[in-house]
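From the shared-data thread, chain only:
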Amino acid sequence: MTKFNVNFSPHVYRLVGEMAVEREQTMADVIRDAISLAAWVDDELRQKNRILIDRGGVVTELLLPHAGRLQPSRPTLPDPDGLGAPAPADPHEQAPVAASRESTPVRRRPVLRSAPSG
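Structure, as tokens:
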């Protein structure tokens, strides 16, 4: 595994800690799960699928601001360990994340809207 350091605001750090306690996981596991979920959502959106949420019979669609910027396939990054290890069989197991100050857009919150029936 490759080590990666991230700075969190006190609020986010507390939130990740609370989730770890509730799930009986480590904070690192909570973050890995979040990245895996984000990779899965992106893969679904790449295939032009929709993410729907059913709240007591009211179906809403999750709209993510970055969905329109997704490429047809996920970019391939160099192996950070330099070992040439193959990617995991499950692409959501350890999703790579690339970030740079120059290319990182302003983050916006997801939007829920009523989904058309049918």
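The chain has one domain: 10-76+91-114.
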